[in-house]
Design a protein that fits this description.
452 residues, 6-stranded mixed sheet, alpha+beta
């Protein structure tokens, strides 16, 4: 058995039918020019034959002393790849509508806790011969940064390399669960970190109460900040990185600032057309990876929760971008004052109302200090391939929470920026409108900042 870290244990403990706690990814591939009609079937068959499943992909919730769940991982001796990896075909015409209908349903269902906590789906029938791969993994198993790093290791920049590298067979630089230290040895080693984390939490609280740290802790209520159901809707969109870099260079901001400004513009327009835009600006929680040079992908979830004023009260897109840039600078300065574990502890403090509202009977607690999560995770910087099939788009799909009915996650794929939006299907109608608003928001930013 492997001991869970506290953040990973929370993801398991707070999961319910209305709150699936898995992250996912939708990759769209273009087959090689000389591909046969059965290219995808052969690829799928080879993946099914990759039965040397690594320990991470054998993990399922275990019980400590026969009673305590969500504390330790057990390892499945046998992994039924016929269950974990399946093949589907879309009805004609095989466009985004049909693909997202399938992915929305797949992303809505819970992972089976009696099995290792991951599933994949190979999807055929897209226009122009393309195919897609959808994968979901429980957030307790890995975070978005780890998932994207694993994806990049499973692909190659050589279009003529036909070796198949499946994520579940790839080794990582850490001991296997079966050969690593025993459970009690893990617990002994974890106790100093637990104590450090508790001390870090106390230090972070003192820093806030003593006024040494300042955070924007007031977010206006919106239509997104409501209890959610279990059904999910998914929307996707891609834009050339060249356009984002043009805005970045013209304004002295960052790519992440432009991503946040695009999101802010889309959220403002979406709420305006529903007469639901609050007078106060929306606040986003923006996760920042806190891994140091010596931390591996196997360290679990290690993120800081920076807060950003999205300036949705400003009509001018350039002014909104500069307000976002200034807000992110101030928020980063908060965490630069803290050691790694104090920053993570402060983030847990900021996010604690999210976890508590998932506990029955505590829905009436004060709302969290942000309206939604917007995450930007770096992806491949150049074209990458799967058995010669080029990765065309890579849409990250994350988790809406109770009181956080929509999530925006972004990654890059060579020369494009790919947005994946996931929302409560009931609470956020016509999610695809947000993609149209993102396109408009980028066009407005380009016009306002690069004219002349």
């Amino acid at each position: 058995m492997d001991l869970l870290n506290p953040i990973d244990a929370i993801f398991l403990a707070t999961e319910s039918r209305e709150h699936p706690m898995h992250v996912g990814g939708l990759q769209v591939f273009e087959p090689p020019p000389d591909a046969d009609d059965d290219f995808v079937r052969v690829l799928y068959d080879e993946a099914q034959a990759a039965t040397d499943v690594r320990p991470r992909f054998r993990r399922r919730p275990g019980r400590l002393l026969g009673g305590f769940s969500s504390v330790v991982w057990s390892h499945a001796e046998d992994v039924d790849l016929g269950y974990h990896l399946r093949r589907s075909a879309l009805p004609a015409p095989g466009g985004d509508t049909e693909l997202l209908d399938l992915v929305g349903r797949l992303h809505s269902t819970l992972l089976d806790r009696h099995r290792p906590l991951w599933e994949g789906r190979v999807v055929e029938g897209l226009a122009d011969g393309r195919f897609a791969v959808y994968v979901k993994v429980h957030h307790a198993l890995m975070d978005g940064v780890s998932a994207l790093r694993l994806l990049q290791r499973s692909l190659t920049d050589d279009p003529f390399d036909t070796r198949l590298r499946t994520p579940w067979t790839m080794a990582r630089p850490e001991p296997d669960g079966e050969t690593g230290p025993g459970l009690w040895e893990q617990l002994r080693k974890a106790l100093p970190r637990i104590a450090t984390g508790a001390g870090a939490g106390a230090a972070a609280v003192r820093a806030l109460t003593e006024g040494r740290l300042e955070l924007p802790l007031s977010a206006p209520p919106t239509m997104f900040n409501v209890p959610i159901g279990g059904a999910r809707s998914v929307a996707i969109g891609s834009w050339p990185l060249q356009r984002i870099h043009a805005v970045r260079r013209a304004t002295g901001t960052t790519v992440n600032d432009v991503v946040l400004a695009m999101s802010a513009g889309a959220l403002r327009a979406y709420l305006l057309e529903r007469n639901a835009l609050p007078d106060k600006p929306l606040t986003a929680m923006v996760p920042v990876d806190m891994r140091g040079p010596g931390d591996s992908d196997g360290e679990g979830n290690m993120v800081a929760a920076t807060l950003c004023n999205l300036a949705t009260d400003l009509a001018d897109p350039a002014a909104r971008l500069h307000a976002i840039h200034d807000s992110m600078l101030r928020s980063k300065q908060v965490f630069q004052q803290l050691p790694q574990w104090e920053a993570i502890a402060l983030s847990a403090l900021l996010m604690s109302p999210l976890g508590v509202t998932l506990v029955p009977g505590f829905q009436a607690l004060p709302r969290v200090p942000f309206n939604l999560v917007i995450s930007n995770v770096p992806g491949p910087r150049k074209p990458v391939y799967l058995q010669g099939a080029r990765l065309h788009s890579n849409y990250p799909l994350s988790i809406p929470f109770d009181g956080q009915a929509v999530n925006i996650t972004v990654t890059s794929t060579a020369d494009t920026l790919d947005f994946g939006l996931v929302a409560c299907r009931r609470s956020v109608p016509q999610l695809s409108r947000m993609i149209e608003h993102l396109d408009t928001a980028l066009a407005e930013l380009v016009a306002a900042t690069t004219a002349g």
